[in-house]
Amino acid sequence: MQEMRLFYTPVWRDNLADSELKWPQLRAIMLDRIYALEGDDDGVTKSNFGGWQSGDDLYRYPEFGWLIGRVMALANEVAPAFSSTHGFNDGILWANVNRRGSFNAIHTHPDAILSGAAYLKVDGEAQGTIQFLDAREGNPTTHWRCFMNLDEATPLTEDAVTIVPREGDILLFPGWVKHWVTPNETDEARVTVAFNIRMNAGT
User: Fold this and answer.
1) 2.60.120.620, 3.60.40.10, 3.40.225.10, 3.40.50.720: which CATH number matches 12-122+167-176+184-198?
2) At 24, which helix (H) or strand (E)?
3) Strands 114-121 and 169-174, sheet pairing
4) What parts of the chain have a pLDDT lower than 70?
5) What pTM was estimated for this model as a whole?
């Protein structure tokens, strides 16, 4: 019997530390810039509870030029999943610093086709994971519980997927996918650079 998968929710994952020989140096200068910016202003509040989030113009700083190039290259690797004729060519970039107790509430990125995050400083599950929630209206476990107990989640029935990032990881996902970041339970800061990417007409 042939199976047709009508809708699906991809998350793409790569690791910058594995592919970039100068990762330690590049990471260090990005962290220095982020900490300097954190010390200079109060940041913005969006999905973040506690912690610090920069403005979305991080691309202005030369320390992030190589990262922008890498993000756009990876984005255009997956662009055919969105369009056979258009590529990604525009976006914004911001930093997140989550210290003990800080987290990001459930949200989407409505001004982006593709979103993601690069993990500059993270060390294990206790510093916070990212959890993606089922993008469908309701989910199978909600509808079926009145008929049977589902003791085992499968790729079809699970309603949340948790990813434990490691240093250097970069995740990309559609901007419409609900997600949140769990609280940092440690005394070490968790630092990411997040991004929203768009396709402009005519590209």
Assistant:
1) 2.60.120.620
2) helix 23-40
3) antiparallel
4) 138-150, 201-203
5) 0.92
